[in-house]
Amino acid sequence: MISKVRARVLPAAQRRSLDELTHDLILSAGDTTSKRSAFWTMLTLAAVIAAGGVLTDSTATVIGAMIIAPLSTPIMGIALGSVQRRRTGSAVVVLLACLWVIAIGMVMSVALPAHYDLPTARSRRGRRRA
Predict the structure, then answer these.
(1) Is the confidence at residue 43, as pLDDT, over 90?
(2) pLDDT tens-digit profile of 66-104?
(3) Measured between alpha carbons, how far is 103 from 50 in angstroms, rounded to an integer?
(4) Residue 124, C-beta contacts closer than 8 angstroms, at least 6 positions apart
(5) Please, are residues 71 and 91 in contact by the beta-carbon 8 Å criterion?
(6) Is 50 exposed, middle or buried, given 0-12, 13-18 or 19+ CB atoms closer than 10 A?
(7) Residues 6 or more apart from 57 whose CB is under 8 A from it?
(8) Angle at which helices 90-111 and 72-84 pack, to 10 degrees?
């Protein structure tokens, strides 16, 4: 009964081996240099887009940045490591990624002049009150 349900829900053509899962989900397995480079580049771009979305009060931009962010890979790596009962280092990657995104947001918010109105792209300095 269980095997019939499993075969219907997850056909054999869609199943992957443990080695394939480890290679795909753990950043320290396989071609680590290209995997880490792609991860941190995409994360940085997503952080810049998200910070811009927060600063311009654009919900759609923040959601777009969340779609670009590659955090699902190390989070699924944490799940894989917990199922295997071994440490994969993915939790450290997620923690460092969160700190990196927060740092980028802080730098972008500090770099923006206080008198600048980002949504309208005008300086508040020199405006007359109505």
Answers:
(1) yes
(2) 898 888 888 888 888 888 787 777 888 889 999 999 999
(3) 12
(4) 115, 116, 117
(5) no
(6) buried
(7) 119
(8) 160
pTM: 0.70
Q: Is the pLDDT of residue 25 over 60?
A: yes
Closest CA to 50 of 96, 8, 14, 97: 97
Token pair 């992957």 is found at 16
Backbone angles phi, psi at 109, to 5 degrees: -70, -35
Distance CA 78, CA 35 (A): 16
- Give the residue-averaged pLDDT of 92-118: 84
* For residue 62, pLDDT beyond 80: yes
The amino acid occupying position 5 is V
Q: Enter the tokens of residue 45.
A: 């771009």
